[in-house]
Every structure is written in C-alpha cells, then in structure tokens.
Amino acid sequence: MLIAGFPAGAFQTNCYVIAPAEGEECVIIDPGQDAVEGVDELLREHRLKPVAVLLTHGHLDHVWSVAPVCGARGVPAWIHPDDRHLLSDPAAGWSSTSSSLFGDLTLSEPDDVRELSDGATLELAGMELVVDHTPGHTRGSVSFRGDAGRGVMFSGDLLFAGSIGRTDLPGGDYPTILRSLAAKCLPLPDDTVVLPGHGPQTTIGRERATNPYLKEAAPHAGPTRGI
C-alpha cells in the first residue's frame, strides 16, 4: 500500500492519500485547511486517480477542503451521519468563543455524500478499509483500518502519539472516548501503525506502553454495548 501525506493549514491536520501502488486509483483522507494544492501535488507525483474522500470526523480542520477536492475530481465524500451536519455548519463543532475565529467562513456539502457505519468494510481503489465508529471526540468520529504489510489505523483525532483527542467541544465526551479507545484500539496488535489526525505516527504497542490515556482506558475494555 502506498501512503503519502502532509500537515495542512494552520491546524497542521494530517491529510493522507492512500493507494495500492503508484499509478493507480486512490483514496484521500481528511483534506483540511488549504489542502487542495497539497493533494494535487501528491496526485501528480504518484500518478494517482482519486475515487473517494474519507472523513474521520466533521471538525473544520479536517473537512475544510472536502467540497473543492470532491468537486474537482467528481468523487464522493464519506462521513458518519452523526457528523454530517458539520459539513455545512462547521461552527456547530466549536465553542462559541473559538467559532468566532472563522468569521464569515461558509462551507457546503459536496454533491455526493455517503454515510459510514460501524464495522462496514469499504472496497475502494482496490483496497479494503474497515470503519470503526469511535465517538468521544465528536459523536460521529470514526477510524479506518487497513493493511500495509502490517496493520495500519487512520485514527483521526481519537488517538495521537502520547495523547488523545480533546473532549471539551460540542459532541465530545471523555468517558465515551475512553470506551472507544478500549473497544477499538486496545484489541489491535502491538505492531499496528497508527496514523493520527495530528502529529507523528506511532504504534499501538508504543501507546499501550506509554500513553496514559490508553492505560486509563484499559479498565473499560470488555463488552462494548452502548458505544
């Protein structure tokens, strides 16, 4: 699997492009602020043709460029239904104080929006990606799991190197994110590569050993009903 990416915009949100190999179809994950040029550069460099955009959640820093990226290539965007409203109402995902930072910014849904569900397997660009609903950062947060020789997880803002996503914005909930970590991260093999929404990549094993939030989530492991 080819995985390329770059940190986009002032939020330094990781945007990823994944494909079976160079010169083939690809999927774009989380095109954030001012991501269009970076996406186009990766597509040219690796001779890729996008077939879909996947969104780990609806926060502005992850969806800022989704409409222009989808519109330019005529591809659908996939998002969990609990976060779909944020595509056209980004301020709803932020506190009243922070939303004022965006002024008169308006966003709109791409022409083709499709909804993700927990446990679904997406067959896109010759790849299979498993969707895990991982609420806690937002109600509609998801992560994507695939295989790149060893397992890989695109964790969005669920899990970072040494930390986790914030839970103090609308739709966030700390006990819920702990349950998501317990249900969706702790069962994974230690060599699973974690590609987060911000910051450097890590592995499940490294986070299991050093991340205080995964340690706190461990007592929540077990039945996942209600997540």
Automatic annotation (TrEMBL):
<keyword id="KW-0479">Metal-binding</keyword>
<protein>
    <submittedName>
        <fullName>MBL fold metallo-hydrolase</fullName>
    </submittedName>
</protein>
<dbReference type="Pfam" id="PF00753">
    <property type="entry name" value="Lactamase_B"/>
</dbReference>
<dbReference type="InterPro" id="IPR036866">
    <property type="entry name" value="RibonucZ/Hydroxyglut_hydro"/>
</dbReference>
<dbReference type="InterPro" id="IPR051453">
    <property type="entry name" value="MBL_Glyoxalase_II"/>
</dbReference>
<keyword id="KW-0862">Zinc</keyword>
<feature type="domain" description="Metallo-beta-lactamase">
    <location>
        <begin position="12"/>
        <end position="198"/>
    </location>
</feature>
<keyword id="KW-0378">Hydrolase</keyword>
<dbReference type="InterPro" id="IPR001279">
    <property type="entry name" value="Metallo-B-lactamas"/>
</dbReference>
